[in-house]
Amino acid sequence: MEEKDNAQVEIQEDITICMDCAGKVVENMNGEYECGACGLIQGQAIDMGKDYRTFADGSGANNERHGMKKTYLLHDGGLSTDIGRGNKDYSGQTIKGDFRKRLYRLRMHHQRSRVQKSSERNMVQALYELQRLASHMGLSESIREQAAFIYKKAAEKKLVQGRSIEGVVAASIHAACRDNGIHRTLDEIGRHSRIGRKEIGRTYRKVKQELGLKIKPAQPSGFVSSFCSKLKVPQVIEREAFDLLSKPQIKQVAAGRSPTGIAAAVVYLACMMYPENYRTQRDVAQAAGVTEVTIRNRYNEICDVLGLDRRVLGKQ
Fold it and tell me: For the chain, which terminus, N or C, has the lower number of CB atoms within 10 Å?
């Protein structure tokens, strides 16, 4: 009774004013919104409350009426049934003898029947690789879901043909991270994957083009915190790097150049401004995954546009 009252209260929140006579609208016994003054029917009442109940014995508390939500992390969306691996019956007694062997065979055949087509086998292998790679990178469940969705669309476009599954999976993860503002370099993804950064980059560009993904270009500010954390520099270096990136002169230098190179050069410049926290170009290059030549070139360009004397920096 209490559950029904809660549902009625939730429905009553939709009461509005009559559009014809400004009278009060109530729900009638037919489940319709009706004006109490003129009788005009405003629409059909919809119960937006939960569709399951919790009984006195505790059943229903774990949503037994429905299973897990649909997920792209399973090749069938998680909608198929599954035979549990436990060897106990409903009463808790251990299953023994011939029935246990029969149950094992049923479980084996059921598992094989879930994967029949080559496309399904491809998805099973790809999702396993996706989960492994995402676990090493520490990505959240929502990022994994989006990466699995991107891979599924790429497989439907037949972008996996002629390419390795690992490469398309890594490209999908990179696309999902970029779309959610999570800055992970290709070197970082390639470190955990069995595919090199160049192939991941090529595959990512192809997937982005074919699927029409609207992903904004990465900004140097997204890499500063990660680089400073790897270099173990104090907070003042990170703040100084962000202040430098906010200057319009540096924004002009960053146009058309790699954001990781700009971020690495800015962090190196911030370290040069505080000699007690000095880091070499090799240290910054290893943390950023770029070459020392790139850092040196971007550093010289930034010093020129800001009018800084490179001979004075690092000697205060």
Answer: N
Least confident among 6-10, 150-154, 292-296: 6-10
3-state SS, one letter per residue, for 167-232 = HHHHHHHHHHHHHCCCCCCHHHHHHHCCCCHHHHHHHHHHHHHHHCCCCCCCCCHHHHHHHHHHHC
Max mean pLDDT range (42-56, 74-88, 259-273): 259-273
Domain that holds residue 37: 1-67
Q: What is the pTM of this model?
A: 0.67
The tokens for 140 are: 């959240």
Shared-domain flag, residues 241 and 184: no
The domain tally of the chain equals: 4
**Quick one: tokens of 218?**
């990465």
Tens-digit pLDDT profile for residues 172-206: 999 999 898 888 888 888 888 888 888 999 999 99
